[in-house]
Amino acid sequence: MRSETKRDPYFDNARFILIFLVVIGHMISPYRDHSQLLDTAYKFIYTFHMPGFILIAGYFAKNVFRKGYTQKLMKKLLLPYFIFQTIFSGFFLVIEGDQRFTLFDPEWTLWFLLSMLGWHLLLIVFARIPYSLTLALLIGLVIGMVPMIGTYLSLSRTFVFFPVFLLGYKLKKEHFDILRNPIYQKAAIVFLIGLFFSYHTILSDLTTDWLLASSSYADIGVEETYGIWMRLFIYGAVFLATFSVLSLIPNRSFPFTYLGGRTLYIYLLHGLVVKTLDLTPIFEKITASGQLWLFLVLSIAVTLLLGSRPVTKSVKPLIEPYKVFSN
């Protein structure tokens, strides 16, 4: 979720598509128990939408050893984290009566900001050691054995998803270009269709805790040996699905491409919008009517609105305060 002067339409297209999937995933989440199709779509989306973001973030972390990079990153991530943690806590206090406030247990979508910082700090160490990806995968498997690991400081997600971030760091642009080979694209389509139908049939009972990566094996309710093998299976599905989706991303500009540079705005703001809409009967009516395509339309509208210039300009002091007050 970065912004640079010279932008690559491929990565901006990927960011836009992925952030749209984040929005629709959060919209349908509370209602997936009422529809097998929504449940299938939810699991399918969650297999690759955040891993896709994480992989791309790792790819653009190659300046991690540049002087001042980490300090700038901390300001970029921690300032909006503190601001939106306060906003979300106040929001949940009003609508749910939740009086708990803490800076160490991120509210809902804010885990990504803490984990992003954690991935960069881990990268400083792992980028300099041999067999780093193998070691990161082993840690991601073993961390589930820690009984208390969970949402606190987003530690579970930080360690579980770090191999994806590290792999992105190791990739070069030509690797993404190779993915767009027509042979790989055909294989990607076949795999994604197969994955979707697998979630609808043989994997319909799979708990989403495996995809969220925010719980220990004990919290999921499985033994450690089973948990390790299951997480290894999930890693395989995540990597294959992520690369399959990235192989299908177009490499030219579209009217929506520029929104790929505003995904941080959309990401931080959409939670409040979705939670507010959830207070109305609109989502329930869509689910009850069976007109599930309306979730698609509504998600596109929210994504476009939150990425629009009037919105991003008005909330810039909240999301990029380090830029506003440094000018």
Q: Would you kindly provide a written description of the structure presented here, covering whatever features stand out?
A:
This protein has 327 residues and is mainly α. The protein contains 17 helices and no strands. The protein has helices spanning 9-28, 36-46, 49-59, 69-96, 111-126, 132-142, 155-170, 173-179, 182-200, 209-212, 217-220, 224-247, 263-278, 282-289, 293-306, 309-319, 321-324. Helix 2 crosses helix 9 (182-200), helix 3 (49-59) packs across helix 7 and helix 5 packs across helix 7 (155-170).
- Strand and helix order: HHHHHHHHHHHHHHHHH
Shape: globular
Going by helix content, strand content and strand pairing, the class is mainly alpha
Radius of gyration: 19 Å
Number of distinct beta strands: 0
- The span between the termini is 22 Å
Strand content: under 5%
The biggest beta sheet, please? none
Mean pLDDT, as a whole number? 93
The parts where pLDDT drops under 50 for at least 5 residues are 1-5
Number of helices: 17
- Specify the helix fraction band: 55-70%
Oligomer: single chain
